[in-house]
Amino acid sequence: MDVRSLAGDVETVIETMERARLTDGLPIVVPTLERVSDFLQYADRDPDDPVAVAPTTNLMATAGLIAANAVMAGCRPEQFPVVLAAVAAIFDGAFNIRGVSSTTNPGGPLLIVNGPVRHAGEYNAGGNALGPGNRANATTGRAVRLVLLNIAGAEPQRGDMATLGWPGKYTFCFPENEERSPWSPLHVTRGFNAEANVVTVTSASGMVNIMGGDRIADELFEKIAGSMRLPGSNDHAFGRGNPVLILSPEHARVLASGGYTREILQERLVERSTLELSDLSSHNADLARKSRDASADRPLRVVEDARDLTIVVTGGPGVHSYFVMSFGESRAVSREIK
Amino acid sequence: MSDGSIMQVVWPAPSALSQGGTMAARLRSLEGVRIGFLDNTKVNLDILFGEIGAVLQHQYRVAHTERVRKPSMAGPMTAANQEYLRQFDAIVTAMGD
To answer: Is A11 left (phi over 0), alpha (psi -120 to 50) or beta?
Structure first.
């Protein structure tokens, strides 16, 4: 590990690291040798253990480097194994971090946590699961952002050319509310045992709120499908992403009671949310023709394979769900948390 | 405010050199070299890369320029793209918006 002696009190060291462009703009926790060592000890990792190579820089993200960034983000040691698995996932070639991280598109990684670690790590899958108030949700996503900044070269306007960015690039992590989902957990649908701890990363570029206390499943279905028809999104232009439908437990229950399984919902939503090439602007239509098998007689699906529409249940009481747009050229990747 | 204390801090950002990496050597001259342009399918890329290619050949005596197209704007190049590009002395990797 590169251990440096910095002079001054905590505030001075935080300022020093901010001036060195090592932060996301928010104050950090100083990654002292003692704190980083605690994280490594918790996860039983050596500082130089290789975790994954950042495809954008060819730099090795070691356990020590990731621990330093996780400390800076404000993680507790209990969240460090989740961060390690998430970093390995975003540097998997299928995730296409080169595109996701450097693009003018607003997007960044979204982390979904499954398994018993949700409880051990004190993640919040209830009310405000995507909002403020929970340290584990907030800092796990932030740790991955700091890894992108400090190891993967995603410095704003140098390696990360986002036109606008979006608040989800500071942090975007939540656990599935497996206990209140009518369907099997996300990680089980992706081939893991129910008892496994898994983090799934996918790209997220923005969200559409889907509101309403519908009690008729088919009406709720139609509203969700309509909320997915977005002529300006990357998904309809490129069609090779994993957009995410985040259902509140109440919405999921209404759909399930109307006979919708996750698989039926995926298939019918993808069928029902298609756009015609003529619904897109001429520029986006041109992109679609160049990037996918698009023609006037073939509707544009948000994803080609309905199974690529990720459906997950989280949150507390209430009648709001989200459709999360993806980068459109990035595959979701899951990694077991060890 | 500094109180004169020293903190032992783990630096969170590695450098290429610290991990044994090296920078590619710069070309000594453009004269007689072959330059590849990775075409990322952006609008007007053909015009811009065409103009740059003409300047490189006529003003700087570059021997050959060639565009190699990857499948889509946002996705990675293919293994075949990568293999084909090995023949060039230098590569322009993309055009931004």
So the answer is: alpha
Cα–Cα dist A12/B31, whole Å: 51
Alpha-carbon radius of gyration of chain B: 20
Distances (CA, A) of A105 to A125, A160, A301, A303: 28, 10, 20, 18
Q: According to the model, what pLDDT value does residue B1 have?
A: 46
**What is the crossing angle of helices A63-73 and A135-150, to 10°?**
130
Q: Which residues in chain B are closer than 8 Å to A65, comparing Cβ atoms?
A: 12-14
Structure confidence at residue B3 (pLDDT): 58
For residue B4, what pLDDT is reported?
A: 65
Nearest to A177 by CA among A112, A120, A242, A221: A112
Domain boundaries, chain A: 10-336
**How far does the CA of residue B33 sit from the closest CA of chain A (Å)?**
26
Cα–Cα dist A262/A254, whole Å: 13
Using an 8 Å CB-CB cutoff, list chain A residues near B41: 290-291
For residue B14, the chain A residues in CB contact (below 8 A) are 2, 59-60, 62, 65, 151
The tokens describing A237, both together, are 């232009």
Cβ burial, residue A306 (10 Å; 0-12/13-18/19+): middle
**B9-67 pLDDT tens trace:** 999 999 877 787 777 888 999 999 999 999 988 888 889 999 999 999 999 999 999 99
* Partners of residue A116 on adjacent β-strands: none
Nearest to A237 by CA among A288, A170, A277: A288
The 10 Å Cβ neighbour count of residue A279 is 15
pLDDT tens by residue, A151-204 = 999 999 999 999 999 999 999 999 999 999 999 999 999 999 999 999 999 999
